[in-house]
Amino acid sequence: MSSNNSSFIVESPPNAHEIVDLTTTTSPTLHITSPSGDDFSSITNEFTTERVCRLLSKNPENYKVIKNTKNNLTSICWNLFGIPTRKILGTEEFEPIQGFVSCESCFQTYAFSSTSGTRVLNSHTCVQKFSSGTRKRSSSESGTNHQMKLETITKSYKDVRLPEKPINIIKELTCKWVCQDMRPFSIVEDIGLENLLQEFINIGATYGKINVKNVLRGADVVAKQVYKLADDYRAELRELLKEPYENNCICVSPDMWSDPYKQISYMGISISFTDKNFIYKSVDICCRPYLQQDHTGSNILLSIQQCLEPFGLIDFDKLTFVSDRGPNLVCALRRYNTLFCYPHRLNNILKRSFFQTERQEKKKKDISSEIQSKNFTGNITANNTINSSSNDGDDSCSPSTSSSDDDDDVGKTQPLLPIKYKKNNKNELLMSKSVNDPRKMKSKDLHPSAQQIINTITRCKNLVRYVKKSGCNKDIQSNGGVALQQSTVVRWLSLINLLESIVRSYKATKRVLINRKQNSKLNGIDVEILKELIRLLKPFKHILKIVQTTNTPSLYMVLICTLMLRKTLGSFEELLEFHQSEPPTNDSIDDENSNSHAIEDTIESEGIQILRLRILELLNMMFELDVRHYASTLLHPRYRKLKDCTKTEREQTYTYIRKCMKEIEKEDKKKQQQDREPPQKKRKLAQSFLQQFEDDSDYEQSIDGDDVDGNEDFSMNLPKVDELARYSAMEIDKSTLTNNPLDFWRINQNDFPLLSRVARQIHSIPASSAAVERQFSGAGLVINERRTSLHPDQVDNILFIRSMQKMKLAE
Hints:
Layout: H1 16-23, H2 38-46, H3 49-58, E1 63-67, E2 81-87, E3 94-96, E4 100-103, E5 109-111, H4 119-122, H5 125-141, H6 150-154, H7 164-180, H8 191-207, H9 219-246, E6 250-258, E7 265-274, E8 280-289, H10 297-308, E9 319-323, H11 327-332, E10 338-340, H12 342-353, H13 356-377, H14 380-391, H15 399-402, H16 448-470, H17 473-478, H18 494-504, H19 506-515, H20 527-546, H21 556-570, H22 572-581, H23 594-600, H24 606-622, H25 627-634, H26 647-675, H27 698-704, H28 723-729, H29 741-747, H30 753-763, H31 770-782, H32 792-810
Parallel strand pairs: 6-9, 9-10
Antiparallel strand pairs: 1-2, 2-3, 2-4, 4-5, 6-7, 7-8
Helix pairs in contact: 9-32, 12-24, 13-14, 16-24, 18-20, 20-21, 20-22, 21-22, 21-24, 21-25, 25-26, 26-30, 29-30
């Protein structure tokens, strides 16, 4: 069997001659310069994972593993995995072997690129051992004593290197399985399959050779067990949520979705919470069929209540909600503590900025006119059906339509801390005198130079539409390009992905279109304009990626990202500085002269300037920061000074946090009074007037403060050094801080008993509803053409068990 150089899954072992050549330091094939483009493909063809692993273990003088020094690495696997390197001939320096990562402990090597995930690396044996050791150390440092389970003590496996024959048999059986049952190749990397096979090996070691049919059960038995396991997990989660629920540390993200096959509407809910150990967790608690008659706000609220009731989440005043600005969701949650999804807001701003909503409005008008024509011809039944569905609102079925364009004008949930900004005189270039509100501005009112850019975006969409329908993407990829991606108004990063794919594949696309005599599709598409647009949208792409995390707190990023956007969009020089400060990535669209080109090209086209200022104006108009955004940033020890914020903003943030601390203090007093009802003191007969004014306890005095007589005019406002003041003046070694603010509050909760509880509440709120959006992506994988008969309750069970398993693995 010949080996395929382009595949890293199945490799044939090299012969002896190849081994000698590779391990000889004088071999000319070892010298690599500037590994990019064709050179990179030659490297990946020269090395395989087995060769790199063998060289690291047998030739440590010339090959070693170095740490991956990128700043945005958050996965635990990078504590052990690094970049394999080899010594440059004639020097003492090492150069990286691109396309691979290796374990520093056992030298196990995997193929890896910027688009690869870390799931396989996290399932590596050394990483699992490191993770378990880290959890044990963190539990001992936090002062919590956990009894070690017997199964944890006895679960140690031999690290045996098997001969080639059984390995080849397993490979062959795996290939037959994935081909016969049409399973994806990645199924062999599933952690669940690995646990199942490991348990089979344990059973075989205990009972000897047995028939596997005595162990496996049928589909009906597995389906019943799914119901049981889901119920057990729900009971477990209910107990886990009791303490965060009582301390107002739970945030709920609801949304709606419909499957594309049976068109069943689902209510999906994800929650995030911070437990008593200051650990942030996120779980998808339900994806249940929506059984209400219509999609009004009251019925949506009723559906949310029915979904949360099994978990004991009854009092909505103790919860915080994060959702998009779909009119029906806003109406349902208007009486409760609600924040809006930050990426949804940015996406709506970009839609307005580039007039993407005009096309939607035209489609709606076309549909309404078509309905009217059908009604005129006598098709009354069809007309009533469509009208009734349209009256339900665009958010009735899918998460994409739940965030409709009309949500930009929804103002029922006002932020607690509105910010006012001065108008920029430069914005007068944007519109004619007859247009006052940029949200209502039409593309025809733009300056001709800006209209040309909008038309360029439309031509790009038409090009991608033709490429997809004609099947040209395969030819473009075979010519060295990447597949062109279409832009949709409901996907947050789709517009910049569209532009980047065209720029990266422009030459390959042009060759393919010329061969098909369709090169006219490129008319009116200027690559330089596309690069300017990409540069303008780069800050949004960077922000939308970092705020969508669901494993760590993210609300504190909203204020920082908003200030950064205002600064970056304020001038072309700031935009250039941001573009140059970003580290280069493998998917960069610029050529090798990009840095010098960006420095020399300091001229901003008139159309891009108009669009940049329009985006800035819409950002200030359509998005208002909430006091909780400021509070979450202040409660991150790295940003506690609220840099670039005004004195008024800081003072209002301090007032809000102190108000929260006072509420927690009063709640504690009420609980203590309920727990112990002290007997009334017997008044002494001969009691001096001095004794009548003595304090009952120091605790009550600290709560009552100066509000004894309810008159603030005569209260003594003595300066108090409370927890917030001590936190602001605290000297903190920044080198000990992590990106997760809860790590700081877990360590310092005894020094700041009230402020740490406020931090728990604030940091349990995510910046986005990305968790429930990802749940719907998983639901789309569960419900496919081969599983249309799957019961909706089982869909809910499958997604819930999956989410609970992910939460358990993250612990």
